[in-house]
Amino acid sequence: MDNNALIRRIIRSKETYMLLLPGVIWFVIFAYIPMYGLTLAFKTYKANLGIFGSPWVGFEKFEYVFRDPAFMESVWRTIWINLGRIVFTFPVPIILALLLNELRMRRFKRTVQTIFTFPHFLSWIIVASVLINFLDMQGMVNGIIRMFGGDPVNFLGNTTIFRPLLYITDNWKNAGWTMIIYLAAISGIDTEQYESAQLDGATRLQTMWYITLPGIMNTIVVMLILATGYIMTAGFDQIFNISNAATAKAGEILDIYIYRITFQSAADFSFSTAVSLFRSIVNFALLLLADRICKMLGSEGLFPPIRKAARARAKGAA
Amino acid sequence: MSRLARPVSIVLAVLLVLLSAAACSKKSDDNKPSDSSTTPSTTQNGNNASNSGTGTETEGGADGEWKPQSDLSKKVKFSYASVQAIEGYDYTKGDPLAQYYSEKFNYEMDVAALNWDNWNERMRIWINSGDMPDVAVYNYIHADAAAFVEQGLIKRLPDDWKQRWPNLAAVYERTTLGPQMEKVFGGTYFLPRARFMDNLPGDPLPNHPSVFIRKDWAEAVGFPVKSAYTVSEIMEFARLVKDKDPGNVGDKLIPIAENTNHAVDLFVARNSTYWNSFYKDKDGQYKWGGASEDTLRGLKLFSEAYRSGLLAQDFYTVKNEEHGAYFNVQGIAGATFFQAPTSNLQPYYNDFKNNLGIDPYENIILATVLGEDGNYHQVDLINYWGTIIFSPDIKDEVFERYMDILDYNATREGYIITNMGLKDVDWTYDDSGNIVSLYDEEKEGKPLAGTTGKYPSWGYLLGSIILFDDFAFDNPNTDERLRELSKKVYRERTEIATPETFTAIDWDYYTYDSPSKRRAEIDYYTEYANLITQSGDIEENWRKWVDSKMPLIQPVLDELNEKFGG
């Protein structure tokens, strides 16, 4: 497509492109313009000189970053926690969506969906407070354990329990919300396929396995690629609110490390920018890598070719 | 429908663009920072903990002689940030004391309430982003402070300020920190708030946290009553309490109630003078306190107390200062190492009496905690807590007005008001010129200060430059038995110590600043608490921890030894 044709097409569909404009403006202002701040990783930040005026120091900050053993520890910890998330939390909304899709009573289905979705709207501070009240040594759970003659369990200070606790609370809070994406994808599956399967005598489990799951596979792949792109970002709010002095090491992910070096000791914004830049580059590389691997395995990945998408649309229209 | 779609979508798009633009360009009408708070209570934080203070006769004398430096007929409005403020409280007219000050000095004050958890962090963000309130109470941390001064992020006071506000200058000289920093920075940027003026209980100055022990329980289990205990003696008491449960508390019994910070203070800091800093050893070389044998000794005791159940198994989940209430409100703790400034003892004892129904004077032992060597361990507290700083953008008229408030509060009249309330309402002079309290807390049914008190605005917020502790030694609102006890506790700390265990400030080290030193700032409270909650041998864990920190510590040691070692 030459440039003139593209411009003509934009003019022809100007209303549609106008709707795109606020989003573009938002991205430019809040995502692209602030990127100039990344130069701080190569400067010594002086608030009075601003980001532009601060003196360049090359890779000095990165030398400090890699000298700190806590940094690499937090990197590996972040990766392990997030790999755990992919195993223990990524499939849960898919399973929930598949199961919920099988419910026939619409009112019950909606009620269940609302119950699952509600926790998403609670902040991690609230969730952590509730959790502490439930699980601390004088909490409800230990109260029940005591009632049955057992010894109380130190749930909140146990580093072995810490990670499972992260996955459980993450699922409780977010699985219902993420499930909506898969339910939307399921609703886009051609109902004729289900009718045909019914005529052929397929069981509900077979329908789910051979029709529903393949029907949402592209969505699953896209979500998986995005999750991979966040592998160096392990949920600051959740861990910050749930961890304590006993689990501080088990919970020191990269985000917490950045927070600690930025706000809990003498502030060095250049140092924390260097760490953040490192994290973003790794995330970006992993995102591209995951996309490429998915394409190699036959999936469309994050950016399906335009011609293929157009063909799909044309086929749909026909 | 399709005819409508085009104009609707255009209108919608334009609206969204305008909203985006408005959202991006909208600047807050004022610079009020978002805030959160805790209710006022005494507590401590990091390396310069506590509340306290009082003062005495200062230049200017009585209110009548005192002269402001600003035109009080002109109203000023300013923003102010302080820890322990009350969220949403009207500090201009919320109570008669607030009203008295705001009318006398003709101001309107917006207060950003900070709490112990966000105080340092918020101040760093505000100052570094150029958004600090006009006036703020800043927890002095030299590394940050040096950066703020170097970058012009806080106001430098005019060179003649000491002549213009002489009462304030007199207090400033007593703080030690102020004049020292003036030498370092070549001007005044920080106004430290003095803990003591005339009644300085020691030099070096001891800190106030003390152990509160249930005397009735001690007597029931045959534990001796003393005015000072070593950490292991306190653990022995806790063991006896755990075994015999003299208060019949049952499952809820906590032999020693602490939060993370106070637990570290009790076990580690009381055994190791330099538990959180560097120090010059006898050989003239700088060493790191985290790696000292004293620190290990404290950690071993800490670990033993945790593993044997003398501490609550989830003590690190205790927020703020709630562990103090396990002792004096719930009555489920045998002992607690807690804040004990003189000014705080009366409400603490009153709560004990009101909640447990027994006489606190007969049933509490307030004592000093010593290291295992029998000595009191501490580095000079420095006679200040919190420093007042000003925004570089503050208007001259606002700056001068606030300095007037500080200067007035440094006079005898202002100083008494900040400690006793309003003259002829809450206190007066008798025929001999002594201060007499007119306030009867029992009759009024509430204390003078605090969220539920007569004057919630009372405290650090009205420009106290001399804090409570000094006056508290003479405050008629505090029971004389408590005042005497407090004096004794302070005095004993200076007596049961050697110059090596209770040391003066090493100003070379204190004022040294470098990128390496900044990066070696460690949250020792969390680190030590984490160490003792780990499984395995505490000494082995500690050695691993020391090794893991050395890449950050060694550059600082090298710098200090090169510059000051000998």
From TrEMBL, chain A:
Its main location: membrane. It holds the Pfam family BPD_transp_1. GO terms for cellular component: plasma membrane. The chain crosses the membrane at residues 16-35, 79-100, 112-132, 209-232. Residues 75-290 form the ABC transmembrane type-1 domain. Keywords: Cell membrane, Membrane, Transmembrane, Transmembrane helix, Transport. Belongs to the binding-protein-dependent transport system permease family. This is ABC-type polysaccharide transport system, permease component.
UniProtKB/TrEMBL annotation, chain B:
Residues 34-59 have a biased composition (Low complexity). Residues 26-69 are annotated as: Disordered. Keywords: Signal. SUPFAM superfamilies: Periplasmic binding protein-like II (SSF53850). Residues 1-23 form the signal peptide. It comes from the Bacteria. The keyword Signal applies. The keyword Lipid metabolism does not apply. This is ABC-type sugar transport system, periplasmic component. It comes from Thermobacillus composti (strain DSM 18247 / JCM 13945 / KWC4).
